[in-house]
Write a structure and sequence with these properties.
The structure is a single chain. This protein is α+β, with helices and mostly antiparallel strands. The chain folds into two domains: 5-93, Roll (Endonuclease I-creI); 104-195, Homing endonucleases (Endonuclease I-creI). It contains seven helices and ten strands. It has helices at residues 5-16, 40-49, 83-92, 104-107, 111-121, 140-154, 174-186; strands at residues 20-24, 28-36, 59-64, 71-78, 93-94, 97-98, 122-125, 130-136, 159-162, 168-172. The strands form three sheets. The protein has a four-stranded antiparallel β-sheet with strand order 1-2-4-3. Strands 7-8-10-9 form a four-stranded antiparallel β-sheet. The chain has a two-stranded antiparallel sheet with strand order 5-6. Helix 1 runs parallel beside helix 5 (111-121) and helix 5 packs across helix 7.
Length: 198
């Protein structure tokens, strides 16, 4: 399967963000994308980047919260299984736990990957005019790998902050958030516009 540099980086951004790489046998894996139903347009924008991997239509699924008993609607789409994704799963997962690989700087080369990662896990605080990129329950070493890759490949400086129960985050000042804005505006997705700084 031939993937462009842009497509490869987009996959990396999805994996770093909300996507799940599901093993399908010893060599293959498939990419599962899932968002709240309100973000169906965003999911479709992602899958359109990778027509080689995603066929068919997204499915709407419902879940009932065990405590509140409220029903929540989600949109989900899964890719075809591929050995390319199987190799990435070995890099990004230890067992079933997602991790940030040491060679991230070589994988996240195109800024569409960063845009997807930020759309998934980033947040702009309008009051303080600063941004955060949530990394989840990774180690401090993994957080440093993420920080260094973003700086080297996109020239965006950040600080690592420990949010305790929420895990590590990358903090971006007002000036650095403006650099994020420039990248996100290259890849506009109307439903995600609230994530764009300023």
């Amino acid at each position: 399967m031939n993937l462009t540099k842009k497509q490869q980086s987009a996959i990396i951004g999805m994996i770093l963000g909300d996507a799940y790489l599901q093993a399908t046998g010893k060599q293959n894996a498939r990419l599962r994308l899932e968002h709240k139903a309100d973000y169906k347009d965003y999911l479709q924008w992602k899958t359109a980047i990778l027509p080689q991997l995603f066929q068919g239509k997204a499915k709407i699924i419902e879940r009932i919260h065990p405590l509140t008993k409220r029903t929540y609607r989600y949109v989900r789409q899964q890719s075809n299984a591929s050995p390319v994704l199987g190799k990435l799963r070995k890099l990004f997962y230890s067992g079933d736990k997602k991790q940030i690989p040491e060679n991230l700087v070589k994988l996240l080369r195109d800024d569409i990957g960063f845009a997807i990662w930020f759309y998934d896990d980033g947040y702009f605080y309008r009051r303080n005019k600063c941004s955060y990129l949530y990394l989840g329950t990774v180690t401090y070493k993994e957080a440093m790998i993420a920080r260094d890759a973003v700086l080297k490949n996109f020239g965006i400086k950040s600080k690592i902050i420990d949010k305790k129960n929420k895990g590590y985050v990358l903090y971006f000042s007002k000036e650095e958030s403006n650099k994020i804005k420039i990248i996100l505006e290259k890849y506009p997705v109307p439903v995600m516009a609230y994530k764009i700084p300023f």
